Amino acid sequence: MGMEMDNKALRNTIIIDAKGSAGLLDEPDKSLDKAAKCLRNGGLVAFPTETVYGLGADGLNPEASKKIYAAKGRPSDNPLIVHIADMEALEKLAYTNEKAYTLAHAFWPGPLTIILPKRDVVPKETTGGLDTVAIRMPSHPAALELIRLSGVYVAAPSANISGRPSPTTAAHVIEDMSGRIDYIIDGGPVGIGIESTIVDLSGEVPAILRPGFITKRMLEDMIGEVVIDPAIADPKESVLKGLKPKAPGMKYTHYAPKGELTLVEKGSDNVTGGEPVIDKIRELAKEKMESGYKVGIMAPQETVSLYEGYADYVVCVGERKEQATIAAGLYSALRSFDDAGAEYIYAESFRGEGLSYAIMNRLLKAAGQRVIYV
Ligand code: TXA
Ligand code: MG
């Protein structure tokens, strides 16, 4: 299975402003009607969710699903998440179990994707050939409204060109998808900024295949023991042991800016900021600048000003003491290095529990696991 790009003539992408639709769920938003109809007819519609923007198509229509892969340049063995707007849909798409309902009732609508054995109605084109299906009920009002109006189950990966950082604003989607899809619904910047937690409930022990806003602890409070897929828990170790991530998407280079990103952290005590880190980043950046390269630095609010003058382009990603702001700013910051033409990028890292675990999972992938310890 290879990559396919859409060679058809560029189409006219219509942008719908739905920034006002948030919160008006009992008053159907007319502006979404056309996009919903387009989904029903097998078209492609990008829409906001609370995590990142999604690129939607009718998930039960194999031809529609295939268009997603073409528009993104996504490998066809990388399955899609099916987005639903009501609980009944879960039973129609998958063979459920008690834990699935416990988690669905606890965290839906919200940033959790549940994997279960699929029913026959879900085509293999949507599941990348797998016998399981990933299902999520997003909480963004425009997403729920669009799914309801369309009357279909909406298969949707993140709305970026394959390999690029996931889009957290409509401008990011326009950058990647304009001319390739039918509609883009602009709901403003997303709230969370990194993709949903994926939990696999198709095996004996529930397993996290991708960390996210819903943490291991939060899942365990509801259903008891949950493991983290060993291939993502320690990426370096897993390469050595030849472990393959259970979520096919986690094996691809991803979230990556065009420049080479390197993380710098304190090795010994797991503390991530601090003076040795700052000195090292300044030194590395200066070295590359002197060799004539365009250099970028990414740092949190607390230290960002200390890098001014040490790189061509210095970006604040959020506040270290407010992890959620780092998640929300991460992909935008990574994309901005492309706009600035950065060839080498240095960043402080954000080790820790909970949301920082999910942030580091994305950041390490973006850095191709390149970390310098000081
Ligand atoms: O927050 C999100 O989940 C966003 C929004 C749009 O909902 N969507 C998203 O989709 O991140 P995508 O396609 O970028 O990531 C889906 C991930 C991939 O790593 C894929 O391999 C995995 O989910 N996945 C999907 N179905 C699976 C299955 N049946 N078994 C294992 N992994 C699966
Ligand atoms: Mg993605």
Structural key phrases:
single chain, 374 residues, alpha/beta, 5-stranded parallel sheet, 16 strands, binds threonylcarbamoyladenylate, binds magnesium ion
Describe the structure.
The chain is an alpha/beta fold. Helix content is 33%, strand content 17%. It is built from 13 helices and 16 strands. The strands form 2 sheets. The chain has an 11-stranded mixed beta sheet, sandwiched between helices. Strand 2 and strand 3 form a beta hairpin. Helix 1 packs across helix 6. The longest helix is centred in the last third of the chain and has 18 residues. The chain is globular, with a radius of gyration of 20 Å. The N terminus is likely disordered. It binds threonylcarbamoyladenylate and magnesium ion.
Query: Outline, from the CA principal axes?
Result: globular
Q: What is the CA-CA span between the terminal residues?
A: 42 Å
Bound molecules: threonylcarbamoyladenylate, magnesium ion
- How many beta strands in the DSSP annotation? 16
> Which runs of at least 5 residues are low in confidence (pLDDT < 50)?
1-7
Average pLDDT number = 92
The helicity comes to 25-40%
- The Cα radius of gyration reads 20 Å
What is the number of helices? 13
The profile of the biggest β sheet is: 11 strands, mixed
- Spell out the helices and strands N to C: EHEEHEHHEHEHEHEEEHEHHEHEEHEHE
Biggest sheet, spatial arrangement of strands: 1-8-2-3-7-4-6-5-9-10-11
Class of secondary structure makeup: alpha/beta
Please indicate the percent range of residues in DSSP E strands (runs of 2 or more).
15-25%
